[in-house]
């Protein structure tokens, strides 16, 4: 097979297409674990755009990307086609200097000048690992990637493959679970194979009878619950393994699926019989007889390890590397969510903006090391327990923000401002010289006139700079006196 000068091995392409089809990912919605992974790739390699792509027969499909743009392209035009065909990391320091790609529309129209991509592999039906996509970064400037950066990209590609493998395993287990009863009836040995698959995937099957509300569990569902294998529990007993605040959500979601004859799926925290906190996913399809839902048949999976990996990726992508608190992207997302909660529930919400006074003087006098110490100490001060879970973020060089939702803090805004200003007084020392950084604070309340994140931020910004002017005026009066 050939396409625009590129030779394709027919057998390889056939195996690759089968491996890609088993993932059921082409054209699907974005998923948070992949979004977190590309965000981390962009940050580690210092590129504005990172993408996770899946390469189909004729088109490339974007599963996740850090910047807005098209979600599919002609395969022939994409750098990633070369990465998949060669099945090795591809690095192009300057696309204009590479005769293979200088005429590509990504270069001539989109202005891509640098590309680095690592292939992503999953097994085909014969167990051969095939390159089905790429994790890549691009820049509009030519550059020479540091070997450590390329090593980081390769490590992230390994994590991406682990996520793809986990999805493939879960889909395969669902298929086994939904057809398992028929297979067991036809051939007893399939039961042994099914049990092995359950244990390998940390997954089990279950069936809920609608008529009498009885549950049937496979052995591995008992193991995940930390219970001895035995008679299936009643539904109410099974729900008690979920944290109390989650139980109504699980019950409501299940009731809706039964009423509408639709698939059921939920992922949440879970506490085993011996008190271990885990993360589980429950999924099921309706069993319909004569147009009525008579049962829900599905799988129950322990996804604790995958969830921990996802949370680690998200923390890395959402955390300011110097201060250890949230970065600007995470702040925007958290503030938007807080505003939606305040509108929906009628709760109080305040935004505190902070600007460090004297930070430039400390940098200029004591050096950037002392300046970094100020930023780290400020981040630590804004993460203290007295702020009662408020989200703190570094949103600029010496600019910070705190999202305040706790009723006790909202009840005394003047006290909150005074205490913030107090903890922001940070002394630093270098070469025997001691200087103190302080912070001006502006706190704005959210109300119906705040139609967007920008409206609330602008209001807090105005209050902040009024506070800064007042502080400068007070300082000048003291000097005059």
Q: Could you explain the architecture of this structure?
A:
- With 481 residues, the protein is an alpha+beta fold.
- The protein has three domains: 2-164, Beta-Lactamase (2-Layer Sandwich), CATH 3.30.450; 203-302, Beta-Lactamase; 320-480, 2-Layer Sandwich (Alpha-Beta Plaits).
- It has helices at residues 10-21, 32-45, 79-86, 105-108, 147-186, 189-201, 219-225, 235-239, 247-260, 304-318, 328-345, 359-366, 368-381, 407-410, 413-423, 453-480; strands at residues 2-3, 6-7, 49-55, 59-65, 72-74, 90-92, 114-123, 129-139, 203-209, 215-217, 264-271, 277-289, 292-302, 350-357, 391-394, 399-404, 426-430, 433-445.
- It has a six-stranded antiparallel sheet with strand order 5-4-3-8-7-6, sandwiched between helices. Strands 10-9-13-12-11 form a five-stranded antiparallel sheet, with helices on both faces. It has a five-stranded antiparallel sheet with strand order 15-16-14-18-17, with helices on both faces.
- β15 and β16 (399-404) form a beta hairpin.
- The protein is globular, with a radius of gyration of 28 Å.
- The protein starts with a strand and ends with a helix.
- Residues 1-5, 187-194 and 473-481 have low confidence and may be disordered.
